[in-house]
């Protein structure tokens, strides 16, 4: 656990401060005017003020434009970024000042940074690997739930104090004292920006030869190999990352996902003896209890093993810790509908579905579309659950069109087959299955 920093002045007790990094005033975001001051006053500040500090007392919300300083406001801002116990960041609107301050905060602190975004915003690619948690403030009825969710995230951050800065992770892992590493990593970055994946992989292999004890290098090469479908090689490097850093939760998660992929390929080839990845994913959620990807991957493993009750439990946990992420949400609802019918969908699930629909539409409308083909497949399922047959089939056709591998369509077909017994309740199900089988 990283030691807290000692602030240079006792005028402000930074150990009790949650510094809020967000736009000020009213800003136009995606053709909509958003009042960020209203969001601070009605959502963020009350949620922060309700958080109990582990040592006693309450967390104090701070935002530079809300304070009056005798000194330069920029100097005070940097003090807040450096010394505040927690920083809450709202990336809604993709504001340049917000991203600048987020970068400063990540460089200054290993832990204590919680990133949020409004549900309808699609994060930019460059930070898509950073978890930005969704919240809602419209209509007003959603504010209470958003406050409770933000309070829980901040409380957990204070309790567990886990490293959440990708900058600090990278700097710690890559600090080897060897000047040969950085040029290789720059070369790898430039290569995959040009879609020259072979060169990028080669650069990472050269970097690992220089420092084969670096877990982050193995993890990043594993992710690169995973993106190219080279699962066996990816497993090797994820294994190395977990051996070198046994508490590296993300590495355990990726190892479990990759092992399960190899296992599924082996099942089709009638090969035995490979691990399912279940143990690695269970290790991942032990190390990082809010890893919704790991819970969702466990749900997938149990679903393929026809352990549907265990699968539903994992998907439900994933929905809970992700505050309604579409991927586990739809799997959870489909498994529930399979057993209890479409009328079993709860009011809370319907709220999640509406939120997911807004986010998925932004992904599908982006040019090029974001997260293809899954944004279209998920919209198809959502429309089917809502009884919108034509829209369900239109989105399905778009998903098929944007599929680059046959397994993507097969995976979606397997998902629909889960609810075959309830097909009469799902408008468009029969036609969707026929399209996918064709």
Topology:
Layout: E1 17-21, E2 26-29, E3 32-35, H1 36-49, E4 60-62, H2 73-83, E5 86-90, H3 96-108, E6 113-118, E7 133-135, H4 143-160, H5 166-174, H6 181-193, H7 197-210, H8 215-227, H9 231-244, H10 249-268, H11 278-287, H12 292-304, H13 308-322, H14 326-340, H15 347-365, H16 374-385, H17 389-402, H18 406-417, H19 429-437
Parallel strand pairs: 1-4, 1-5, 5-6, 6-7
Antiparallel strand pairs: 2-3
Helix pairs in contact: 1-4, 2-3, 6-7, 7-8, 8-9, 9-10, 10-11, 10-12, 11-12, 12-13, 13-14, 14-15, 15-16, 16-17, 17-19, 18-19
Query: What CATH architecture of the domain at 14-166 would you give?
Result: 3-Layer(aba) Sandwich
Query: Can you count the beta strands?
Result: 7
Strand content: 5-15%
Rg over CA atoms: 23 Å
Q: Which segments are poorly predicted (pLDDT under 50) over 5 or more consecutive residues? A: none
Main sheet attributes: strand count, strand direction, barrel closure: 5 strands, parallel
Distance between the termini: 54 Å
Which geometry do the CA atoms define?
globular
Level-1 CATH class name of the domain at 14-166: Alpha Beta
What order do the SSEs take from the amino end to the carboxyl end, as H and E?
A: EEEHEHEHEEHHHHHHHHHHHHHHHH
Structure characterization notes:
With 438 residues, the protein is an alpha/beta fold. Among the domains are: 14-166, Rossmann fold; 324-438, no CATH class. Helices cover 59% and strands 7% of the residues. It has helices spanning 36-49, 73-83, 96-108, 143-160, 166-174, 181-193, 197-210, 215-227, 231-244, 249-268, 278-287, 292-304, 308-322, 326-340, 347-365, 374-385, 389-402, 406-417, 429-437, and strands at residues 17-21, 26-29, 32-35, 60-62, 86-90, 113-118, 133-135. The strands form two sheets. A five-stranded parallel β-sheet has the order 4-1-5-6-7. A hairpin with a 2-residue loop joins β2 (26-29) and β3. α7 runs antiparallel to α8, α8 runs antiparallel to α9 (231-244) and α14 (326-340) packs across α15 (347-365). The relative contact order is 0.06. The mean pLDDT is 84.
């Amino acid at each position: 656990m990283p030691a807290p920093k000692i602030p240079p002045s006792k005028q402000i007790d930074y150990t009790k401060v949650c510094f809020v990094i967000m736009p000020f005033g009213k800003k136009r975001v995606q053709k909509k005017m958003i009042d960020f001051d209203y969001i601070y006053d009605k959502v963020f500040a009350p949620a922060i003020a309700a958080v109990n500090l582990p040592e006693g007392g309450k967390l104090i919300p701070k935002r530079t434009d809300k304070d009056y300083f005798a000194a330069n406001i920029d100097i005070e801002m940097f003090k807040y970024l450096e010394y505040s116990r927690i920083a809450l960041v709202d990336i809604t609107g993709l504001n340049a000042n917000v991203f600048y301050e987020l970068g400063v905060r990540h460089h200054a602190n290993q832990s204590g940074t919680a990133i949020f975004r409004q549900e309808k915003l699609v994060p930019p690619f460059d930070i898509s690997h950073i978890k930005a948690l969704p919240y809602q403030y419209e209509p007003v009825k959603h504010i209470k739930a958003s406050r409770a969710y933000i309070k829980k995230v901040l409380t957990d951050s204070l309790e567990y104090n886990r490293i959440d800065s990708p900058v600090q992770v990278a700097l710690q892992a890559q600090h080897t004292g060897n000047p040969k590493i950085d040029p290789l990593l720059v070369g790898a970055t430039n290569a995959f920006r040009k879609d020259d994946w072979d060169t990028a992989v080669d650069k990472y292999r050269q970097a690992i030869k220089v420092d084969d004890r670096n877990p982050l290098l193995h993890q990043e090469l594993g992710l690169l190999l995973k993106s190219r479908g080279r699962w066996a090689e990816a497993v090797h490097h994820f294994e190395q990352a977990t051996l070198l850093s046994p508490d590296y939760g993300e590495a355990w998660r990726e190892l479990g996902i990759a092992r399960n992929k190899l296992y599924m390929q082996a099942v089709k080839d009638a090969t035995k003896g490979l691990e399912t990845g279940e143990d690695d994913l269970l290790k991942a959620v032990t190390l990082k209890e809010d890893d919704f990807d790991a819970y969702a991957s466990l749900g997938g493993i149990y679903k393929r093993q026809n352990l549907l009750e265990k699968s539903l439990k994992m998907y439900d946990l994933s929905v809970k810790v992700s505050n309604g992420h579409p991927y586990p949400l739809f799997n959870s609802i489909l498994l529930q509908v399979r057993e209890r019918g479409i009328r079993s969908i709860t009011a809370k699930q319907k709220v999640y579905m509406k939120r997911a629909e807004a986010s998925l539409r932004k992904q599908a409308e982006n040019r090029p579309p974001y997260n293809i083909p899954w944004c279209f497949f998920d919209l198809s399922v959502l429309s089917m659950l809502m009884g919108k047959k034509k829209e369900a089939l239109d989105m399905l056709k778009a998903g098929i069109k944007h599929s680059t591998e046959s397994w993507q369509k097969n995976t979606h077909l397997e998902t629909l087959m889960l609810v075959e017994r309830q097909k009469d309740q799902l408008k468009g199900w029969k036609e969707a299955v026929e399209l996918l089988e064709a």
